[in-house]
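Reply to dn_fold:

You asked what the input looked like. This is it:
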Amino acid sequence: MTHAIEARGIGKHYDVPGGEIEVLRGIDFHADPGELVSFVGPSGCGKSTLFNIMTGLLQPTYGEVWVKGRETTGTATPEIGYVLQKDLLLPWRTILQNVVLGLEVRRVPRREARERAAELFEVYNLTGYEDRLPSQISGGMRQRAALMRTMVMDPEVVLMDEAYKALDYPLKIELESELLATVRRSGKAVVFVTHDIEEAVTLSDRVYVLKAHPGQVVEEIRVDLGTDSLRIEERRLAPRFNEYYERIWRSIGTRPVDAGRAA
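and this is what came back:
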């Protein structure tokens, strides 16, 4: 199988007065179609730098990025979509206008753009909110709209950088369930950065654990919770949840105060 996205020996150094700082060293990873892969690790392990390299916004010092069997190192490609922690919706545009913004930039005909968006409004339960401004809807709805803005472009790979960090717990659980359903339905590859180990275990098919200074992969963990449920609350009750939770903690090098599942 051709990987949806692949990093081959990625390293990144920054020049500083008196020398250089090594941020990433020899990162190898891949994500396949229909797979959700997470990165977890301490602050300063270079997760955001790695994402910027994946999108082509940043050139690595060495190593290569491949998307669908084609090298894309240092090059922006429409096959990759990026969802940030902040929704960054334009406040003067309606939700529909925000969702189709990327299609407008690509000069997709207005009617086609709106038809493509209409399908997603139904999928993400935002039908009826097309003409609202971002200030007129909730934070969860804005985050859905931000994800729709990415998905309407039909990328092969979706990068998500702590996309649900700022949301309250019930809404976070709801959107995580929707994300799993989207991955399984669409066959897209999702690469997810999170500091939340519970989130990584619950969502991921595989977890890459990073160490810091410089950022390196210390372990790749394949997750099999023993359930096909897409509901986050059910996945967190799976018999093997604690096993993976503790394994990731040990890999990071920190013992949790309480290794039990979330209340």
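Residues 255-263 have pLDDT under 50 and may be disordered.
Hope that clears it up.
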